[in-house]
Amino acid sequence: MAAKTIIAWTDRTFNIAWGCTKISPGCKNCYADTLSHRYGQSVWGPGQPRRTFGAKHWNEPVKWNREAEQLGRRLRVFCSSMCDNFEDHPTITAERQKLWSLIRATPNLDWQLLTKRAERMARNLPTDWGSSGYPNVWLGVSIENNDYVNRADVLRTLPAVVRFVSYEPALGPLEQLNLDGLDWIIYGGESGPGYRPENKQWARDIRERCDQQGVAFFHKQSSGFRTEMGIDLDGAIVRHYPQPRRIGLSLFEDEPVMSHA
After folding, report:
1. How many of the other CB atoms lie within 10 Å of CB of 27?
2. Which is more confident, 254 or 62?
3. What is the 3-state secondary structure of the chain?
4. Signed CA dihedral, 87, 88, 94, 99: sign only
5. Contacts 24+ apart (CB under 8 A), 37-44
6. Does residue 3 have a pLDDT over 70?
7. Which pairing describes strands 216-221 and 75-79: parallel, antiparallel, or unpaired?
8. What's residue 261's pLDDT?
9. Predicted confidence (pLDDT) per residue in 101-146, tens digit
10. What are the phi and psi torsion angles at 136 (to 5°)?
11. What is the pTM assigned to this prediction?
């Protein structure tokens, strides 16, 4: 539940909770919903509780922080794959406050926070977020097609060392996405039972625009039941990472931040 991961663009996953409410077409075949039910957890929907975790779970990133220091390189942590950090739910609100403290205590980890609820981000960031954001937090939004590019419009107004878009599951073209102020685009076709097919030109088009505007592009996968068979784009593995805007400066007193590898 909080360990090494098969998600190609990160090193670890950590969940502040399990459970969420679906809000747009990209949520239709949500793997987190499917996995929750497989484990007998009824945590989906606005009226349902959210699954939370104890001290042992919350201490795992502290161990990863020590590991990163020993390795001499930063580790990326995707938070949260099984919920939305910015959902309007009392349990998520409480767990999110614990998250900020954990992030401050783990300066050698780059925390990747992804949401579909862009409109809730600004008022739910910590009070010490400042004019540049935390030096070890990357903020991102999920966008599945042109109908939701406004999520990026909100994102680019927020200070962050990295702003990124997860174009997954790709359900349509994103020619209306303004790349200004964005650092990273992750493209992924939908996978699993009932997956919705992509048009590969969507990936080619956004890759070309990223190349032209100096935005890092990461092709995670093509659509299909087994995505490990389609990680290449036109015969090549295209997986680039962004360079955070501020490295080596810490907002956290007495906590060193190492250079980004």
Report:
1. 18
2. 62
3. CCCECCCCCCCEECCCCEEECCCCHHHCCCHHHHHHHHCCCCCECCCCCCECCCHHHHHHHHHHHHHHHHHCCCEEEEECCCECCCCCCHHHHHHHHHHHHHHHCCCCEEEEEEECCHHHCHHHCCCCCCCCCCCCEEEEEECCCHHHCHHHHHHCCCCCCEEEEEECCCCCCCCCCCCCCCCEEEEECCECCCCCCCCHHHHHHHHHHHHHHCCEEEEEECCECCHHHCCCECCECCECCCCCCCCCCCCCCCCCCCCCC
4. positive
5. 43/17, 43/18, 43/19, 44/19, 44/20
6. no
7. unpaired
8. 29
9. 999 999 999 999 999 999 999 999 999 999 999 999 999 999 999 9
10. -125, 30
11. 0.92
Measured between alpha carbons, how far is 120 from 32 in angstroms, rounded to an integer?
21
Q: How far is the C-alpha of 37 from the C-alpha of 51, rounded, in Å?
A: 12
Nearest to 182, CA basis, from 122, 237, 133, 139: 139
Contact call for residues 147 and 95 (beta carbons, < 8 A): no
Which amino acid makes up residue 231?
Answer: I
Residue keyed to tokens 């097919």:
197
Q: Between helices 55-71 and 90-104, what is the axis angle to 10°? A: 30
Ordered by where they begin, the domains of the chain are 12-229 (3.20.20)
**Could you report the per-residue pLDDT of 4-52, keeping only the tens digit for each?**
788 999 999 999 999 999 999 999 999 899 999 999 999 999 989 999 9
